Amino acid sequence: MPQTSLTYRTIVRVAAAAMPLFSLTSPRARAGHQGRRVAERHLSDWARRERDPVRPLAWFHASSVGEGLQAESVIEALRSLQPHLQFAFTHFSPSAEPLARRLRVDVSAYAPYDLPADIDAVLESLRPDLLVFSKLDLWPELATRAAARGVCVAIVAGTVSAGSGRLRWPACRILAPGYASVAAAGAVAEPDAERLIRLGVPRPAVRVLGDPRFDSVAARVRAIAADDPLLRFGQGAPTMVAGSTWPGDESALMAAFAAIRADRPDARLIVVPHEPTPGHLAGLEALAARAGLPRPVRLSEATGPVPLLAVDRVGVLAALYGAGSMAHVGGGFGRAGLHSVLEPAAWGLPVVFGPRWQESRDAALLRDAGAAVSVNGADEMRTTWETWLRDPAGSAAMGRRAREVVESGLGAARLSAEMLAQLTSSRPPRTSPSEGR
User: Fold this and answer.
1) What is the reported pLDDT for 65?
2) Contacts of 15 (CB under 8 A, 6+ apart)
3) CATH for 6-212+411-436, among 3.40.50.720, 3.20.14.10, 3.40.50.11720, 3.30.470.20?
4) Which residues contact 105 (CB under 8 A, 6 or more apart)?
5) Residue 434 has what pLDDT?
6) Above 80 in pLDDT, residue 101?
């Protein structure tokens, strides 16, 4: 059975020991560190109270929100196939906490640090039958030690970009034991399947099943009520909704919006920062002032549509895209990586994003379908925006093509759940303690 190396364990121990130092200057790091410190106790306490020894347990792990959304649709599909299962969900990023709280699972928490003692304690408490990693966030210690206990280890929504650092030495060598422990892996596309094999997943374990995030996003958009109060912020005027933005996105947006308003004073902009911290919102207000724009009204203070809305809450972006006529997706003007383009596409909006989109398969799909545009700066942003305002029929056609891209990707969640159901069905049935005596 594969085992992690001394090198990997040393790296994790050093990183865990250093985290309190990072926590001094980073609220996100502090929240994550605190969550991981109590994760083992939280999961063990739940197991003592509510773990049914007769029912199999499926443990899903996701790094952040995007991976969590991919896991969500698979969890729901697997629940419909095997309603007797119990479900645990863990995550790494603090941004996934709101998602974890709303998932239909029996217990959720941060994942503990990937250290032998912490991992053994959680495995002993939860006694999972199935361990599922979403996308690529596989923890080698957890994977290898779970497999050694007879737990079926799987990957869903397997995605490996061509430029992933995991493919390069020495990372590929250090992480290989974890990937070698995988019994089944559902890849999003054929190139991802080949790269999973390069990482060490056994070739017979890999199959191409598509991306379950399409199912998750479509279901989430369908669930938003037509009378959701957030939708009113786009009523009566053409509205650009800029989601998951960073300062680089906002700089281009503010400059473009200032030029747009000279000819179209009815145009509106809704900005949804990826991290709506007080400092970020203050920076957004300063950008607006330098561009000669009205002061952004914060969502918590707004009573109706305004020219420039700054969203100071998390968890509302999916609904706010529905208020838009067009969408900008953030991350493409910096190093954060392009965020999900699927939610605005599911609403049927034309999409624009910055120049760094090449690592996003979904962005490529939209561009190839003529449903999205990439721009290099404020001038190109303004030109695209003006084009959509002048030609609403053309922008609506782009939006329809965007929705068609999402609809063409539906069904992966069910296929992934069927793969997992085969793993749990192949295990011997559990017996209660009284039956075992």
Assistant:
1) 84
2) none
3) 3.40.50.11720
4) 60, 75, 87, 88, 89
5) 38
6) yes
